[in-house]
Write a structure and sequence with these properties.
With about 400 residues, this protein is of the alpha/beta class. The protein has 2 domains: about 160 residues, 3-Layer(aba) Sandwich (Rossmann fold); about 190 residues, 3-Layer(aba) Sandwich (Rossmann fold), CATH 3.40.50.1260. The strands form 4 sheets. A 6-stranded parallel beta sheet has the order 5-6-4-1-7-8. A 6-stranded parallel beta sheet has the order 11-10-9-15-16-17, sandwiched between helices. A 3-stranded antiparallel beta sheet has the order 13-12-14. Strand 15, helix 11 and strand 16 form a beta-alpha-beta unit. The longest helix is centred in the middle third of the chain and has 14 residues. The two termini are about 30 Å apart. The structure holds adenosine monophosphate (AMP). Adenosine monophosphate binds next to strand 14.
Length: about 400
């Protein structure tokens, strides 16, 4: 269960002029020094603006990539800081800012202190007490807005939170609200799951099956279900050790499988042949769900009042096999009466590619974190917003 009574920015007493340690997730894709997607920076602005409006001094911390506890310029947050400055300028937010190579307390009179990558420090990922103490010195209160990290207990989002009054930022609050609606869904509730492996998503599917009316399965994980159903799937990948689990899930009568595929003899981006699942050619691999399956899924999507989607319907990276994923994105966006939540890289990419963002109720900024929420896992980071605070 996602806790509902979390301490948010509105619960902070005497916020005016406070020194705030703010954890954001600016782990954004970079090409050289260019930020390729600044969504996470833009999404953090609401919290930053609110704190600035209360004349707070903000110390910002984030990680970037996996430098494994060592300083490595490839993972420097400096280019991200530069993009952050451009965004502030565009938003007409006039504040003094400074970038710091080292994470240590200082007396500079700057409104926003932007610190270098927390993962340049070995102590971050292992949630080291000393590193948490270093971070603790950067503020009087801690605001965590790094949603995509709520399933990890690191010093910079958990260790430090255990030491000081902690509140969740607007982004985490909005994310949790969207996922809370999935816990008490307006029916019919349809989940659409795709991607590579059933073993990766078994816990999620098992948790979802209790709440949904149907789960539509696409992607490579459909083959293990089809095999469990007794069908031949040619050369398509099957997880033999998951067959029993799939049989159990099929018995719930809530699993809807594809009825046709587009595929090829090789795993290559060349035009495919369409075939029904009942006549799956022995020497073929299914690379995308077919037209009849899309039409079948459309009937469920059209009438749903709640939808959760994660994972592509086919090998989305291949131009010849991205059609179903793109069509699913369009079909969900077309259903204006449903609460639609999307979590996970390829599905989000499909939505962005088609510029369908407005057609979705919520597009999560954290793939792994959103799946943990949907799987019903208890996340310790969320408990940090709940503990008693002494200020
Ligand atoms: P996931 O990270 O579990 O969401 O899986 C995404 C991956 O699943 C993508 O890289 C897709 O190429 C892959 N995938 C989806 N459908 C298929 C398929 N029919 N055969 C092989 N890989 C697939």
């Amino acid at each position: 269960m996602i806790p509902t009574n979390l301490k948010t920015l509105y619960d902070i007493k005497n916020l005016e002029n406070k020194k705030v340690l703010l954890r954001v997730d600016y782990n954004v894709p970079l090409e050289g020094n260019i930020v390729k997607d600044d969504t996470r920076i833009v999404e953090s602005l609401a919290t930053i603006k609110y704190l600035l409006n209360h004349n707070c001094k903000i110390s910002m911390i984030s990680h970037l990539g996996r430098p494994d506890g060592k300083r490595d310029e490839k993972y420097s947050l400096k280019p991200v800081y530069n993009r952050f400055l451009e965004i502030l300028k565009k938003e007409k937010i006039n504040v003094s800012t400074k970038f710091y190579d080292e994470i240590e307390n200082n007396q500079d009179d700057v409104q926003i202190k932007f610190y270098e990558n927390t993962r340049f420090y070995y102590g971050d990922e292992i949630c080291d007490e000393n590193f948490s103490q270093t971070l603790f010195k950067l503020g009087e209160i801690f605001v965590n807005d790094a949603f995509s990290l709520i399933h990890r207990e690191h010093a910079s989002n958990y260790g430090v939170a255990m030491l000081m009054p902690t509140y969740c930022g607007f982004l985490i609050e909005k994310e949790l609200r969207a996922f809370q609606k999935l816990e008490n869904p307006v029916k019919p509730y349809i989940a659409i799951m795709g991607g590579a492996k059933i073993s990766d998503k078994l816990k999620i599917i098992k948790n979802l099956i209790e709440k949904v009316d149907y789960i539509l399965i696409g992607g490579a994980m459909a083959f293990t279900f089809l095999k469990a159903y007794g069908l031949n799937v040619g050369k398509s990948p099957v997880e033999e050790d998951m067959i029993k689990e799939c049989e159990f899930l099929l018995a719930t009568k809530k699993i809807i499988l594809p009825i046709d595929f587009v595929g090829q003899e090789k795993f290559e981006d060349i035009k495919g042949k369409n075939f029904d699942c009942k006549n799956f050619p022995d020497n073929y691999l299914g690379l995308d769900i077919g037209k009849k399956s899309i039409d079948l899924f459309k009937e469920f999507i059209k009438s749903a009042h709640t939808i959760f989607w994660n994972g592509p319907m086919g090998v989305f990276e291949f131009e010849n096999y991205n059609k179903a994923t793109l069509k699913i994105a369009k079909m969900i966006a077309k259903n204006k009466m449903c609460h639609s939540v999307v979590g996970g890289g390829d599905s989000v990419y499909a939505i962005n590619k088609l510029k369908l963002e407005k057609g979705f109720s919520w597009i999560s900024t954290g793939g792994g974190a959103s799946l943990k929420l949907v799987s019903g896992s208890n996340l310790k980071v969320l408990d940090t917003f709940n503990k008693d605070v002494k200020e």
